[in-house]
Write a structure and sequence with these properties.
heterodimer; A: alpha/beta; Rossmann fold; 52% helix; B: 463 residues
Amino acid sequence: MNILVRHIIYKSLAMVFTICLSAFVYKRIYWIPELKDQGPMLYNLSEYQWHNDLLYFGESSNYWVAPEDSDKRTISDMINDSIPGMRLSGLQVPAYHAGMFLPVIKRIDTTSRVRGIVVTMNLRSFGKPWIYSTQENALMRARCFYGDHHPLYNRMAAALQFYKNPDPEEQEKKMLHAFEFDTLKVNFPLPFNTVKRWCEQEKFPLPGGGEDFPKRVLADHYIKAYAFQIDTNTNVRIKDFDEIVKVCKQKNLKLYFNILSENVAWADSLVGRELVYFMRTNAQLLQERYTRMGAIVINNLEAVPGESFGEKTWTTEHYDQRGRMIVAMNVAKVLLANEPANKKKSNLRRH
Amino acid sequence: MLFNSWIFFLFLPLVFTGYFLLPHKWRGFFLLIASYVFYGWWQWEFLLILGFTTLVDYFCALKIQDSEGSLKKRWLILSLGSNLSVLFFFKYFYFFFGSTDFIQQFVHPYPKLKDLVDFLGKALPVGISFYTFQSMSYTLDVYYGRAVPERSLRQFATFVSYFPQLVAGPIERFTHLNEQIKQRHFIVYSNLQAGFRLMLYGFFVKMVIADNLSYTVTSVFNEPGKWYFYWDIIGVFCFAFQIYSDFFGYSLIAQGVAKLFGVDLMDNFNRPYMARNITDFWKRWHISLSTWFRDYLYIPLGGNKVGKAAWVRNIMLVFLLSGLWHGANYTFIIWGALHGLYYLVQRFSPVVIRNYYLSAVLTFVGVGIAWVFFRADTVAQAMDVFKGMAGMLEGKRQLDTQPFIFLLLLIFWIMELARGGQRFDAFCARFNSFQRWSLYSFILFCILVVCGTQYYPFIYFRF
């Protein structure tokens, strides 16, 4: 054999050996500590799925607590405490959405103890500000760590940007374009047919002249967050949720969607009932669509009263202990009605 | 397209295969297309600027060659003026005028104009300073009779846009690079060997060393004074190595990629932190830029063959412009001015430090202090970092830097010491096959297992 060819073969083998060794060492030694940091949801799943009947997929809404709360439990903990005979744990990372839950749900082992999952459905995550969020790059990078490949492959995919890496400026442009040109079609007279025009028409005059600027900013923010109509053919979040439904069917997991509460009362008083109309219509659309597809949808949109929202100057789904309890009870009620395990008392150790 | 991105790992084998499969007469054109694809991957609109620079310098160089006396000079001025205008327009306009009240008030009633001014403030074509300087050196060389103008527009465009070194150098000279690109190349085992060695070490230096230092540096510079004072010192120390390994890594990969195609790019670094004084440092740091300023600014201004006052002026001008070349910010100007001052202090100081180690440490400290301005976004931020380093901000937090990063830094330093003045490919040739492959395996292992996983574009891309 030609010496050069032999050289190339030896060297290729040495290279392959090094890669295999790296893959082995990485998985055995470095993967878990890195996953804890870079892919916490999968890290928790790897443990929780063996001890829980149900898993709760959420974001910051699950664990946010108001400073004055005496009950610091998360929504998922409250649910867990209200469903005797079953165990439920929460998997949550701030700013996560269905596109991030999906790869983790795909990794649920069918031989594990998990029989069902509760996935939070955040209405705002269907809107343009979230879809075109500048945080999307970081989320997509984190998503690499949830891939169904060898951990070293996932790591290199993140390091070499093998993920959708949209330019933040482009993202912002797309969002502004949508605000300007995406028309809102309703069957009642609406004096403004785009988000931009709507924002421009909102006025908050002060008695002594001038304008209440903070209120105006907040109203703009509310309009941008909620004034949209979900197009089930194009909305990326719909695609993610559809895929979640499909995966759960394949894995024989019972699927619950928890439509999170929004500050509807505040939206009404700040902007008006037109905005509430969009919030309600979108929530209803989601409820009908996913009920039709076989999921159980818990519509908490208006369940939490305005005073239980932790942050009044921004649109968040952060509730105080009363708000969290309301959401948890609504979810627990549905779980108790649908999960057979509650009929027999479990003697499993609670964590 | 970033070197440390998956798309480049597709792009390179495709270009390599395509290049060597094509007949020689088509290769230049293919390389030009590949280079434009490489550059346009960021934002294709910026190809227009690259094309404009190329066209202007191509025609001006031909006219310079065919003209005499003042006409010749006018063509040179047209070329330099166009290049500097483009550079000024995209890089410095907003800095000098865009943010001033006058301009803002003037453009306020005209939203389109305001958008344009704001766009200039944000948009910076990648590597514009690098290819503009490379292209300018060509017309200057033609003017001074050091180069014969290229008659083929396609060939000249390939020289300006040659993808391995397009966005962050080394800033090559026409006579060095163009002839090499033109030559008929074959797949040569030794070139592949050297190319892969350089690339491997380049990726190690960038992805393992520079990217892992980023967290400490970013934490310290984003919140100076939040940490115990020694973290501010460590942060600055880390930045000195981050910027070196980031840029050095890029240069090595660029050299390695070019070597695969049979082209030798110049060395851009020669272990700069082992410099015994500031003069020595500038002979080792970003060599292609420092020699550019020497050949096209310092020497035409008279160099050191002028009076003391004029020489001081020349030195300060070179360093101030070198600072400004990096970016439109007062921090870069201060960075340049500091280096100029160091140079003057070294020249006029009555004290000469004969001990190499002491001298090298002092040089490193001086360079490190200047790096604070280079890294900071504003002068105020730089001052906060200094205050933090002096313990004046009462920060009381520990930074959770992983200790293994310092081990990696030590390994890198040992490798730098071990290779002496040799380039990494030549250094590897010292060892037998087993030792060499053990080294490659170790480097590859580090890249795979401990490289940074965040998004870290090369620092010098923004210049």
